[in-house]
Specification:
11 strands, three-stranded antiparallel β-sheet, single chain
Length: 803
């Protein structure tokens, strides 16, 4: 008896062999009848041994070729009959059917397309696929049984002639006479059904994925002749599937662009990508997954992502403004799929940051030009208000984009680089960025950090350092920071030396030791000054115990402190006799202990506490040193006496700009009008006359009278120009030093390489332009530090100190 199971019984050739010839037709009739019974599922009644012996004998008697061809013709005919009787009737209910009808009595025929309803199409198509699959399963089973019968022919005849084995030949016959049946187009029906089912599922319908999967596996099992690796699936079905998908997603992209906003577009695009992935994993071949994914990406992402990003109503700008983090995360994921460089998204983010930064810059300038008194901004403090507004808004913008970067874009390094470039661009377009940042730090180190814990204070300083990193001209920041630090130290207005040192440490970590050397020197000067004053006070107790005036002196190393504090000519002053005597006493004390040193007095940063008797009561006034000198002049006047501007100037030698500012503080500001000015006006003129205001009143005993110019902490245009001139001069020195340093080490260098190396050395402090470097190279040539090569004018040789 013959079994249809998978195990094969190994049979040896029969020992009793008939030496005579065999009748092929009779033997083939036996074999073909057995094959027919196999297809009818009656294999259990067949004798495997008898059939094997019959086939063996035919091959042994040289009838193998005829047997092989007869087998192919038998199977081919059987498959054609199956198509005609079993599959063709089902094909009409699969896709839009082509029906032939007779019109009238003349026998005229016409063919019309009859569309099927979705349900009929789905059910009819699945029935057809299942029918094909059933025939395929039966055929494969029969081919296994037949190949067992014809095993000897496989081993002897097929292998020697390199012909397909019986089982493989049977699969090829199924491919050619069923799938590629020219009369009934079974394969085309299968392809159309699968594509229709996919389309139905794309439209939201439910399909029988198991039936489609089984059919796809069948197509993948059918290989192409003489084409290694090609299957019916990859050769015939997949191209149709991909073409139909291109058409669908081209139309889908147009539909989504027309009907959806950017958020919905991104959601539906991701949904389509997920659906195609799951479809490939479920019933379409896994090998098609990257191809169909690429089609979806090309049509829904690559071709339309720019318009999604730039949409005025719902694009990236809208998402950022409204904190649509999920949408931004989805946008990033989709952009990353099609472009690892994320070019479009990076460009859009860069442009948006620069645009927002430009708006912040413009808003700050508007505060300067048009102070809003309703918000407490006046012409006097407009620049300070602008500085704080600018810094806070820039830091707020930075926080916002940091959150977007980390929460929606996985901290992508490329995005981070683009954001860094964008922030650096707009920050450095604000020509007062260094001054504004220094003012922000100054305010926090004076009062803004009061009451905060160490961690909270460090967090504020870290935010300032974040902004500092973007500033290109760090030497400019150093100039302003040094000036503000000097005022804090000399005025005793810093909240904590520890916090001050923490800030300097952070700056040192960012730009190196050389940047903070002078800042640390300023702290050292203050400590040394405190030690000196303790010694001096002890000295006074021993030598002049009756002294009624206390004096505290800060001895500063001129090279460490801002130039404005160490310029002798601009800070002259004639002190009252009592003060002058104390000055000389300290000078003698200091020089006796530090021979060879010269003290230069700078009254512009000093202050004094003086007790003043008015008609009703006495008050203690805290004023600048200049204001103290001015007020002391009125001690020598009779009651009701007055002094002109020129008389005050002649008596004190105070520079005009300082004299005007201090007189405004004493005679113009209503709450601190210690002097009476005639005629009364906001401006100080050389013809004005001043007298002591004996009727001055205040509810406070102790009154601080600030110099009016200090109300606005930013520089005036004149002061800013002076600062720029000083910075430019320092840059020239630094460039000269870099050129000499490089040439001394390299001896000989080409012009472009020298420029590049100088730029590299100076970039941590400022970004020198090529024109400045070229100008300083020319200066080094004139001063004979270097010379041009006689052979190559672009080559330089080091001269000074050459061996």
């Amino acid at each position: 008896m013959m079994s249809s199971g998978k195990s094969r019984v190994k049979m040896r050739p029969p020992r009793n062999r008939d030496s005579g010839d065999v009748n092929f037709d009779e033997s083939w009739a036996v074999l073909s009848t057995a094959m027919q019974e196999m297809y009818r599922k009656n294999a259990s009644r067949l004798s495997y041994e008898e059939l094997y012996r019959t086939a063996y004998t035919l091959v042994l008697k040289k009838h193998a070729e005829k047997l092989y061809n007869s087998f192919k013709m038998f199977v081919a005919q059987h498959l054609r009959d199956v198509v005609a009787t079993e599959l063709a009737p089902l094909a009409s209910n699969t896709t839009n059917s082509l029906l032939t009808s007779t019109i009238g009595g003349g026998g005229v025929t016409s063919t019309i397309a009859v569309p099927l309803a979705a349900a009929d199409k789905r059910e009819g198509g699945i029935r057809f696929l299942k029918a094909v699959k059933a025939q395929w399963d039966d055929h494969c089973l029969c081919m296994r049984m037949i190949s067992d019968i014809l095993m000897y022919m496989d081993r002897v005849y097929c292998k020697e002639l390199q012909l397909p084995l019986i089982y493989d030949a049977g699969l090829a016959l199924f491919r050619d006479h069923v799938i590629r049946n020219n009369e009934f187009q079974v394969g085309e029906h299968i392809y159309a059904i699968i594509l229709d089912q996919i389309q139905l599922e794309r439209d939201g319908d439910i399909v029988d994925s198991s039936a489609i999967k089984a059919t796809v596996l069948m197509l993948e099992s059918l290989t192409e002749d003489k084409i290694d690796g090609e299957t019916v699936y990859s050769r015939s079905f997949e191209p149709k599937f991909l073409r139909s998908s291109v058409d669908f997603y081209t139309s889908e992209a147009e539909k989504l662009s027309r009907e959806c906003d950017s958020s919905q577009y991104l959601i539906k695009t991701e949904k389509r990508l997920q659906e195609e992935y799951e479809r490939a994993m479920s019933y379409v071949s896994v090998t098609s997954e990257p191809k169909i994914t690429k089609i979806v990406e090309e049509n829904l992402i690559t071709k339309n992502i720019v318009s999604v990003i730039k949409s005025d109503v719902s694009g990236m700008t809208f998402m950022i403004a409204n904190d649509r983090l999920e949408d931004l995360k989805r946008l990033y994921r989709l952009c990353k799929r099609v472009d690892p460089e994320i070019t479009d998204l990076r460009g859009a983010l860069n442009a948006r940051v620069i645009q927002q930064g430009a708006e912040i810059n413009q808003d700050a300038l508007e505060v300067l030009k048009h102070p809003d008194k309703s918000k407490g901004v006046t012409a006097q403090n407009a620049a300070t208000a602008a500085a704080f507004k600018w810094v806070e808004e820039v830091l707020g913008l930075k926080d916002k984009y940091d959150r977007i970067l980390n929460d929606t874009m996985d901290g992508d390094n490329q995005i981070q680089t683009s954001l860094t470039n964008a922030f650096s661009s707009f920050i450095n377009q604000m020509n007062r960025c260094s001054e504004f940042l220094s003012l922000f730090i100054d305010d926090n180190l004076k009062k803004g950090l009061k009451g905060k814990t160490e961690d909270e204070a460090e967090a504020v300083l870290d935010r300032a350092i974040t902004l500092f990193r973007y500033i290109a001209d760090k030497d400019m920041f150093e100039t302003y920071y040094k000036t503000h630090l000097a005022k804090r130290l000399l005025g005793g207005r810093s909240i904590s030396d520890d916090v001050e040192r923490m800030m300097i440490t952070k700056l040192k970590m960012e730009v190196g030791f050389s940047f903070t050397t002078k800042l640390e020197g300023m702290f050292k000067d203050m400590k040394v000054s405190n030690d000196i004053m303790q010694e001096y006070k002890a000295h006074v107790q021993n030598t002049d115990p009756e002294r009624t005036i206390d004096m505290s002196v800060s001895v500063l190393t001129s090279t460490n402190w801002p130039v404005s504090l160490s310029t002798i000519e601009s800070h002259t002053c004639v002190y009252p006799a009592g003060i002058e005597r104390i000055k000389r006493s300290f000078e003698k004390f200091y020089v006796d202990r530090h021979s060879g040193r010269v003290l230069t007095w700078n009254p512009n940063m000093g202050n004094a506490d003086i007790r003043v008797a008015f008609r009703k009561r006495k008050h203690e006034l805290n004023v600048s040193t200049y204001a103290m000198v001015i007020l002391m002049l009125f001690n020598d006047l009779a009651d009701g006496g007055s002094l002109t501007y020129e008389e005050i100037k002649a008596a004190t030698s105070i520079p005009d700009n300082e004299l005007i500012r201090n007189l405004q503080s004493l005679a113009v500001v209503p709450k601190t009008r210690i002097l009476i000015k005639q005629p009364m006006s906001k401006d100080i003129n050389t013809t004005d006359r001043f007298s002591f205001n004996v009727d001055f009143e205040s509810q406070y005993i102790r009154i601080k009278i600030p110099t009016v110019a200090y109300i606005n902490k930013t520089e005036t245009e004149t002061e800013r120009k002076g600062t720029m001139d000083k910075v430019d001069e320092l840059r020239r020195y630094q460039t000269d030093a870099a050129i000499v340093r490089i040439m001394k080490a390299r001896k000989t260098l080409e012009h472009n390489i020298l420029v590049a190396e100088v730029t590299g050395q100076l970039s941590s402090h400022f970004h020198p332009d090529a024109a400045l470097i070229k100008k300083r190279i020319d200066a080094m040539l004139e001063r004979e530090y270097i010379e041009r090569s006689a052979e190559n004018r672009q080559m330089y040789h080091y001269l000074v100190g050459r061996d």
